[in-house]
Amino acid sequence: MKMTGNTILITGGTSGIGLGLALRLHEAGNKVIVAGRRKELLDEITAEHPGIDALVLDVADPDSIARARETVAASHPGLNVLVNNAGIMLPENLLDPAGLQVAEDHVTVNLLGTIRMTYAFLPLLVGKDDAVVMNVTSALAFVPFPSTPTYSATKAALHSFSESLRIQLAGAGAGVQVVEVVPAGVRTTLMGQQDSEQSMPLDDFLTEVLGLLREKPDGKELVVEPARFIRDAVANGSYDDVLAMMTGS
Ligand SMILES: NC(=O)c1ccc[n+]([C@@H]2O[C@H](COP(=O)([O-])OP(=O)(O)OC[C@H]3O[C@@H](n4cnc5c(N)ncnc54)[C@H](OP(=O)(O)O)[C@@H]3O)[C@@H](O)[C@H]2O)c1
After folding, report:
1. Residue 244 forms beta bridges with which residues?
2. In this predicted model, what pLDDT tens digit does every residue of 26-54 receive, in sequence order?
3. What is the model's pTM?
4. Nearest atom (ligand 1) to Cα of 61
5. Residue 248 has what pLDDT?
6. Is there a domain that residue 204 lies in?
7. Which three-class secondary structure state does DSSP give residue 198?
8. Which residues form a coiled coil (predicted)?
9. Domain span including residue 160
10. N or C: which end of the chain has fewer CB atoms below 10 A?
């Protein structure tokens, strides 16, 4: 991915990693459109950062995605980068019947939302110079966190989906690069870890990810250092130990 001169749509751009990426990429000389459900935050972002555009989008709602596609096609015909970052993460107890709704919400937002966004926006990207789909997954795609079983499963599925997407697009000569971003814990409000010493400060995460992107413009996976031992657990033969660590045993 080139570092400047892109037109980039970022889902989940109202807070945390998505907003952080939006601000850094805007500063670097890209046109950025942030998307999310919280209109008041979108209004604040566009008021505070002239040049950033905003779009109300609920990735759980196919009609909202279809409207967003039509809006962006008309307002930003140069769109060449889609960042699928929107996500939710909540604890889920598989023995509590209420957990089923939590599970379904994760599949709808994290997995189906990304898949629907990809189908909707790929026609706008194919054939563009320097086109990219960037999917934000997680270290938990590679070893699950048992307290968030369906969250972890959606991220494993998104890793798998990203691999197939990359190969199908290359096979079709579509000229769309697929990049997976693999964070470990980052201090955001995702699951209340904004003050956690065990999570990476957001600024450090952004600096490392954008550094990796600069170093490896054709890279498939951007794995930040704290995620590396989880990403490589299977290859290193340490999977059982890492899973036990995730379990707290
Ligand atoms: N922070 C971490 O430790 C960590 C680690 C690994 C992976 N990740 C991944 O990083 C991504 C960003 O998370 P974050 O940590 O930055 O958390 P965050 O601050 O809670 O951001 C989540 C974003 O997703 C958006 N979102 C949620 N549901 C949505 C929906 N139905 N439609 C559209 N947007 C929706 C939210 O915007 P609205 O509420 O305005 O819609 C918000 O902007 C997620 O995919 C997460 O799984 C985070």
Report:
1. none
2. 999 999 999 999 999 999 999 999 999 99
3. 0.98
4. 31
5. 83
6. yes
7. coil
8. none
9. 7-247
10. C
CA of 243 to the centre of ligand 1 (A): 24
Token pair listed for 92: 């889920």
pLDDT digits (tens, 9 = 90+) for 77-116: 999 999 999 999 999 999 999 999 999 999 999 999 999 9
Q: Are strands 131-136 and 31-36 parallel, antiparallel or unpaired?
A: unpaired
- Maximum Cα interatomic distance, the chain, rounded to a whole number of Å: 53
The answer to whether position 235 is within a domain reads yes
Q: Domain containing 102 — which CATH number?
A: 3.40.50.720
Work out the average pLDDT over 165-191. Answer: 97
For ligand 1, residues with CB inside 6 Å are: 11-18, 36-38, 41, 57-60, 85-89, 109, 136, 138, 183, 185-186, 188-190, 193, 199
Categorize the per-residue pLDDT at 228 as very low, low, confident or very high, splitting at 50, 70 and 90: very high
State CA 54 to chain mean position distance: 17
**Per-residue DSSP letter, 49:** S
Q: Measured between alpha carbons, how far is 58 from 75 in angstroms, rounded to an integer?
A: 19
Residue 93 lies inside a defined structural domain of this protein = yes
